[in-house]
User: What shape does this take?
Amino acid sequence: MESFSTLLRTASREQHEEARGSTFIGDLLGHRLGVEAFARYTEQLWFVYGALEAGARQLAADPVAGPFVRPELFRLTALERDLEHLRGPGWRTAISALPATLEYAERITTCARTWPAGYIAHHYTRYLGDLSGGQIIRDTAEKTWGFSKKGDGVRFYVFEEIGNPAAFKRTYCELLDAVPGGELERQRIVAECKRAYGLNNAMFEALGEEFPLTA
Assistant: This one.
Protein backbone atom coordinates (compact mmCIF):
# COMPACT_ATOMS: atom_id res chain seq x y z
CA MET A 1 0.00 0.00 0.00
CA GLU A 2 1.31 3.43 -0.95
CA SER A 3 2.41 5.55 2.01
CA PHE A 4 0.67 8.85 2.64
CA SER A 5 3.89 10.84 2.14
CA THR A 6 4.35 9.21 -1.27
CA LEU A 7 0.71 9.84 -2.17
CA LEU A 8 1.06 13.50 -1.19
CA ARG A 9 4.21 13.92 -3.26
CA THR A 10 2.92 12.19 -6.38
CA ALA A 11 -0.59 13.68 -6.29
CA SER A 12 0.75 17.24 -6.13
CA ARG A 13 3.61 16.76 -8.61
CA GLU A 14 1.90 18.70 -11.40
CA GLN A 15 1.29 21.74 -9.18
CA HIS A 16 4.84 21.51 -7.85
CA GLU A 17 6.24 21.57 -11.39
CA GLU A 18 4.06 24.58 -12.19
CA ALA A 19 5.61 26.43 -9.24
CA ARG A 20 9.11 25.52 -10.34
CA GLY A 21 8.31 26.59 -13.89
CA SER A 22 6.73 29.94 -13.08
CA THR A 23 7.85 32.82 -15.26
CA PHE A 24 8.81 34.95 -12.27
CA ILE A 25 11.03 32.30 -10.70
CA GLY A 26 12.48 31.43 -14.09
CA ASP A 27 13.40 35.07 -14.70
CA LEU A 28 14.81 35.40 -11.20
CA LEU A 29 16.97 32.30 -11.50
CA GLY A 30 17.92 33.24 -15.06
CA HIS A 31 19.49 36.51 -13.88
CA ARG A 32 16.92 38.50 -15.86
CA LEU A 33 15.48 40.35 -12.86
CA GLY A 34 17.16 42.71 -10.42
CA VAL A 35 17.55 42.64 -6.67
CA GLU A 36 14.33 44.67 -6.28
CA ALA A 37 12.32 41.69 -7.54
CA PHE A 38 14.13 39.42 -5.09
CA ALA A 39 13.40 41.84 -2.24
CA ARG A 40 9.73 42.04 -3.22
CA TYR A 41 9.50 38.26 -3.19
CA THR A 42 11.11 38.20 0.25
CA GLU A 43 8.44 40.62 1.45
CA GLN A 44 5.71 38.23 0.36
CA LEU A 45 7.37 35.35 2.17
CA TRP A 46 7.28 37.35 5.41
CA PHE A 47 3.48 37.53 5.25
CA VAL A 48 3.13 33.83 4.37
CA TYR A 49 5.48 32.64 7.08
CA GLY A 50 3.91 35.03 9.56
CA ALA A 51 0.67 33.11 9.07
CA LEU A 52 2.42 29.73 9.20
CA GLU A 53 4.27 30.43 12.40
CA ALA A 54 1.34 32.08 14.13
CA GLY A 55 -0.50 28.87 13.30
CA ALA A 56 2.35 26.82 14.72
CA ARG A 57 2.06 28.62 18.05
CA GLN A 58 -1.67 27.87 18.13
CA LEU A 59 -1.22 24.22 17.21
CA ALA A 60 1.85 23.24 19.24
CA ALA A 61 -0.23 21.05 21.53
CA ASP A 62 -2.60 19.77 18.86
CA PRO A 63 -2.50 15.96 18.49
CA VAL A 64 -2.66 16.13 14.68
CA ALA A 65 -0.54 19.16 13.72
CA GLY A 66 1.53 19.46 16.89
CA PRO A 67 4.21 16.92 15.85
CA PHE A 68 5.00 19.09 12.81
CA VAL A 69 5.76 22.16 14.90
CA ARG A 70 9.55 22.02 14.77
CA PRO A 71 11.38 25.19 15.89
CA GLU A 72 14.37 24.31 13.71
CA LEU A 73 12.17 25.03 10.70
CA PHE A 74 10.98 28.48 11.77
CA ARG A 75 11.87 31.15 9.20
CA LEU A 76 10.36 34.40 10.45
CA THR A 77 13.39 35.67 12.38
CA ALA A 78 15.65 34.94 9.41
CA LEU A 79 13.22 36.72 7.06
CA GLU A 80 13.23 39.78 9.30
CA ARG A 81 17.02 39.95 9.21
CA ASP A 82 16.90 39.62 5.44
CA LEU A 83 14.32 42.38 5.12
CA GLU A 84 16.32 44.72 7.33
CA HIS A 85 19.27 44.13 5.01
CA LEU A 86 17.18 44.55 1.85
CA ARG A 87 14.85 47.36 2.91
CA GLY A 88 16.65 49.06 5.80
CA PRO A 89 15.78 49.46 9.49
CA GLY A 90 12.32 50.85 8.71
CA TRP A 91 11.35 47.84 6.63
CA ARG A 92 8.13 47.12 8.54
CA THR A 93 6.54 50.32 7.22
CA ALA A 94 8.03 49.90 3.75
CA ILE A 95 6.69 46.49 2.78
CA SER A 96 3.26 45.41 1.54
CA ALA A 97 1.47 42.20 0.66
CA LEU A 98 0.08 41.56 -2.78
CA PRO A 99 -3.62 40.58 -2.85
CA ALA A 100 -2.61 37.04 -3.88
CA THR A 101 -0.28 36.86 -0.90
CA LEU A 102 -3.01 37.98 1.48
CA GLU A 103 -5.31 35.28 0.11
CA TYR A 104 -2.56 32.70 0.62
CA ALA A 105 -1.86 33.81 4.20
CA GLU A 106 -5.56 33.96 5.05
CA ARG A 107 -6.06 30.38 3.88
CA ILE A 108 -3.20 29.20 6.11
CA THR A 109 -4.73 31.09 9.05
CA THR A 110 -8.16 29.56 8.40
CA CYS A 111 -6.74 26.04 8.33
CA ALA A 112 -4.73 26.62 11.50
CA ARG A 113 -7.88 27.81 13.25
CA THR A 114 -10.41 25.30 11.94
CA TRP A 115 -8.63 22.27 10.42
CA PRO A 116 -5.21 21.24 11.77
CA ALA A 117 -4.77 18.53 9.13
CA GLY A 118 -5.26 21.15 6.42
CA TYR A 119 -2.59 23.28 8.07
CA ILE A 120 -0.19 20.33 7.64
CA ALA A 121 -0.69 20.56 3.85
CA HIS A 122 0.56 24.15 3.88
CA HIS A 123 3.36 23.32 6.29
CA TYR A 124 4.55 20.53 4.00
CA THR A 125 4.45 22.50 0.76
CA ARG A 126 6.30 25.48 2.19
CA TYR A 127 8.93 24.18 4.59
CA LEU A 128 10.00 21.12 2.64
CA GLY A 129 9.97 23.09 -0.58
CA ASP A 130 12.21 25.81 0.78
CA LEU A 131 14.48 23.31 2.49
CA SER A 132 15.03 21.72 -0.93
CA GLY A 133 14.51 23.99 -3.93
CA GLY A 134 15.09 27.17 -1.98
CA GLN A 135 18.80 26.46 -2.00
CA ILE A 136 18.89 27.15 -5.74
CA ILE A 137 17.45 30.62 -5.12
CA ARG A 138 20.01 31.28 -2.38
CA ASP A 139 22.89 30.29 -4.61
CA THR A 140 21.59 32.51 -7.42
CA ALA A 141 21.12 35.49 -5.09
CA GLU A 142 24.62 35.16 -3.68
CA LYS A 143 26.21 34.99 -7.11
CA THR A 144 24.01 37.60 -8.80
CA TRP A 145 23.76 40.32 -6.17
CA GLY A 146 26.82 39.67 -4.06
CA PHE A 147 25.18 38.65 -0.80
CA SER A 148 27.56 37.07 1.69
CA LYS A 149 27.36 33.28 1.58
CA LYS A 150 24.50 32.25 3.86
CA GLY A 151 24.46 35.81 5.22
CA ASP A 152 22.09 38.75 5.46
CA GLY A 153 19.71 38.83 2.52
CA VAL A 154 19.56 35.05 2.12
CA ARG A 155 19.27 33.83 5.71
CA PHE A 156 15.75 32.61 4.99
CA TYR A 157 17.26 29.79 2.94
CA VAL A 158 19.77 28.74 5.61
CA PHE A 159 18.43 26.07 7.97
CA GLU A 160 21.29 26.23 10.46
CA GLU A 161 19.64 23.90 12.96
CA ILE A 162 19.11 21.11 10.43
CA GLY A 163 22.48 19.45 10.04
CA ASN A 164 21.28 16.62 7.82
CA PRO A 165 18.43 17.71 5.52
CA ALA A 166 18.00 14.23 4.01
CA ALA A 167 17.55 12.65 7.45
CA PHE A 168 15.18 15.44 8.46
CA LYS A 169 13.04 14.86 5.37
CA ARG A 170 12.84 11.15 6.16
CA THR A 171 11.63 11.94 9.67
CA TYR A 172 9.13 14.41 8.27
CA CYS A 173 7.76 11.77 5.88
CA GLU A 174 7.33 9.42 8.81
CA LEU A 175 5.24 12.11 10.53
CA LEU A 176 3.11 12.43 7.40
CA ASP A 177 2.60 8.67 7.26
CA ALA A 178 1.41 8.75 10.87
CA VAL A 179 -1.19 11.49 10.39
CA PRO A 180 -4.46 10.11 11.79
CA GLY A 181 -7.60 9.84 9.71
CA GLY A 182 -9.18 7.64 7.10
CA GLU A 183 -8.97 7.69 3.33
CA LEU A 184 -11.44 10.57 2.98
CA GLU A 185 -9.43 12.80 5.30
CA ARG A 186 -6.20 12.00 3.50
CA GLN A 187 -7.78 12.89 0.17
CA ARG A 188 -8.89 16.20 1.69
CA ILE A 189 -5.29 16.87 2.77
CA VAL A 190 -4.06 16.06 -0.74
CA ALA A 191 -6.60 18.51 -2.16
CA GLU A 192 -5.44 21.17 0.29
CA CYS A 193 -1.86 20.53 -0.72
CA LYS A 194 -2.82 21.18 -4.33
CA ARG A 195 -4.64 24.31 -3.23
CA ALA A 196 -1.52 25.48 -1.38
CA TYR A 197 0.54 25.12 -4.54
CA GLY A 198 -2.14 26.99 -6.46
CA LEU A 199 -2.07 29.88 -4.00
CA ASN A 200 1.71 29.96 -4.18
CA ASN A 201 1.57 29.98 -7.98
CA ALA A 202 -0.93 32.84 -7.92
CA MET A 203 1.54 34.80 -5.80
CA PHE A 204 4.26 34.11 -8.39
CA GLU A 205 1.93 35.25 -11.18
CA ALA A 206 1.24 38.50 -9.33
CA LEU A 207 4.97 39.06 -8.85
CA GLY A 208 5.49 38.35 -12.55
CA GLU A 209 2.93 41.03 -13.42
CA GLU A 210 4.70 43.48 -11.13
CA PHE A 211 8.08 42.67 -12.68
CA PRO A 212 7.44 42.01 -16.36
CA LEU A 213 10.55 41.11 -18.27
CA THR A 214 11.46 44.11 -20.42
CA ALA A 215 15.06 43.26 -21.26
Q: What stands out?
A: The two ends are 50 Å apart (CA to CA).
